[in-house]
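Holo model, pyridoxal-5'-phosphate. Inputs:
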Amino acid sequence: MNNVLMDTILQDPRTITPNLVIDYDVIDETYERFLENFPGGLIYYAVKANANPQIMQFVVDKGGGLEIASAAELELALNAGASSDKIICSNPIKNPAFLQQMHQVGVYAMVIDSTFEVEKVARYAPGSRVYVRLAVDNHGSVLPLAGKFGVDQELALELFDLARELGLEPIGLSFHVGSQCLSVNNWVKAIAACGEVWHEAEARGHNFNFLDIGGGFPAGHYHDASIPTQETIGTAVMQAVTEYIPRIPNLMLILEPGRGLVGESGRLLVSVVGKARRGSDEWLYLDAGVFNGLMETFEGFPPVLELVSEDAHERPMKRYTLAGPSCDSCDVIARDVELPEIHINDRLMFFDAGAYTNEYAAAFNGFPIPLVTALNCKREPVFG
Ligand SMILES: Cc1ncc(COP(=O)(O)O)c(C=O)c1O
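Output:
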């Protein structure tokens, strides 16, 4: 990580806030580690984490694929230079127009997880390759995705049969263990479940070669050792694949990292724009809040942050409630956060902000979404 360049920008008082500073060297290192830790795995970056055109181009330049969820993301993917066979869609709910567009451009494959969706795909994207999303244990992830998506093993088999009847081409399975997944065993159990369905589907005459282990790879091990490393997850996943998935020479082992690829590359620099004492609480108001950049704190992600100031170590420690700038009372970022004493105009820096920061952000109340500063980016965007 090029901390010198990053630190220079973060400490420069001329840097406008809020500002999301993305270091492409970190994305590059992380990408390479994925390839090492998941030998033979194919990276399909989950664009939803950060649809910055340069990041998408970076992945395409590395030979990776893109996982999209919407027509807008399809357009971005094509503009980034992705060939259609390097695009998949793992959003279980796709509107008819989007299905038609994916069909027209020849997106490689798409997910299904209900009979309605199978019928819709067969109608609007006939003949498509499809994979079923299995419902798997999401306990131990900071942001569980279970419940809204995924089917049990029995329904998965029914969906494969129905898809085949309707002229689609079932190719395999996917799952998502939940975002920022801290339980390595979730991947192992999910792959074991996929193995069971895979064998049963083969017995019914299906011919699979596609296993998509989704996202969920956590960020932040470097500041919290209890967060599993990519190495640990990779070892467990590769063992589980060997143990549970039939050995076939052309297995496509798909990874859809969002946060896991870009989370640690970004730092969000914000300014303190107000202070107040309310009862026994000291409040700090920042120029970014849950609406314009820090939505994930609202979803239960504990922010990791520090004061950017040379005299940070000399100031007495205090406890603060952190809030965003908007007039909405739910715009509270965190409570009881220990920081050196803070003054108005001080700057704070949030770590691991490369994913789900600007993608979630809206300029509610007129407070702008963060500017983006790219470090070590070798390529000018071809558009955007
Ligand atoms: C289908 C799918 N794939 C991949 C991801 C990326 O997940 P993460 O950012 O946890 O890696 C998501 C996130 O919601 C998702 O819904």
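The chain has two domains: 25-263, 264-375. The longest strand covers residues 266-278.
Archived with the compound record.
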